[in-house]
């Protein structure tokens, strides 16, 4: 059997709900062994795309293959080789941690012996061995999230689809989950991730697309996107509300953005820009030079206006 190297191949993919175009003709390729991200504001089309890739929502138009198969014809076969981590945990809270894994494994036709062995392996992976016989309900949010991810691995999937995997978790729990996901990628599991945490995308994703209005507006590695759409550094000048004057710093940076309490100067040398601003008599309440981030790229491409 020939090993498929492109696990998701979409060309001109569309999804309509009545007259509303949620996904408007996107092209996406996800390669075996990589972590691929979908970023975008609410309503960008990320979830609709993920549902088509997960074979739970039919496409309206375009071509789509997942694991070398057509979801319209081979949905059950594809789903048997996928792991899915939904945005909201849907664990059986009245069962124990171990029972959640073992019962889920039985859905894939695994023997009782095989599923017991797999559950023990996954409990260790998720650092839940000591809680194996506890009911799920009292677990912390981070533990429940780790269990949901562990459950998605019961069938040894070739690809795991994760929708906002760390939403609502504290920093320690997020970093532990990042470590678990990184280990999965090291073991050859392909990851597809939607997230609204830009630092998460930078940490986890080899490549990503930024979606807005149902279309892809940028694609590349986090480093490539920062290089293409931002500058090496950002100088933040904070002022009392209403006292920032962008005219006084014009020409000191490639781009100046005005926010209610600060000016953002996008430049390759933040310290030089700060010195030049001081020479012009600009006296901010505080200043900060930081490296450009994926969040700067995201906001430039999709805007700062809240979308519901």
From TrEMBL:
<keyword id="KW-0067">ATP-binding</keyword>
<dbReference type="InterPro" id="IPR017871">
    <property type="entry name" value="ABC_transporter-like_CS"/>
</dbReference>
<keyword id="KW-0046">Antibiotic resistance</keyword>
<dbReference type="GO" id="GO:0046677">
    <property type="term" value="P:response to antibiotic"/>
</dbReference>
<dbReference type="GO" id="GO:0016887">
    <property type="term" value="F:ATP hydrolysis activity"/>
</dbReference>
<keyword id="KW-1003">Cell membrane</keyword>
<feature type="domain" description="ABC transporter">
    <location>
        <begin position="8"/>
        <end position="238"/>
    </location>
</feature>
<dbReference type="InterPro" id="IPR027417">
    <property type="entry name" value="P-loop_NTPase"/>
</dbReference>
<protein>
    <submittedName>
        <fullName>Lipooligosaccharide transport system ATP-binding protein</fullName>
    </submittedName>
</protein>
<comment type="similarity">
    <text>Belongs to the ABC transporter superfamily.</text>
</comment>
<keyword id="KW-0813">Transport</keyword>
<dbReference type="GO" id="GO:0005886">
    <property type="term" value="C:plasma membrane"/>
</dbReference>
<keyword id="KW-0547">Nucleotide-binding</keyword>
<dbReference type="Pfam" id="PF00005">
    <property type="entry name" value="ABC_tran"/>
</dbReference>
<dbReference type="InterPro" id="IPR003439">
    <property type="entry name" value="ABC_transporter-like_ATP-bd"/>
</dbReference>
<dbReference type="InterPro" id="IPR003593">
    <property type="entry name" value="AAA+_ATPase"/>
</dbReference>
<dbReference type="GO" id="GO:0005524">
    <property type="term" value="F:ATP binding"/>
</dbReference>
<keyword id="KW-0472">Membrane</keyword>
<keyword id="KW-1278">Translocase</keyword>
<dbReference type="InterPro" id="IPR050763">
    <property type="entry name" value="ABC_transporter_ATP-binding"/>
</dbReference>
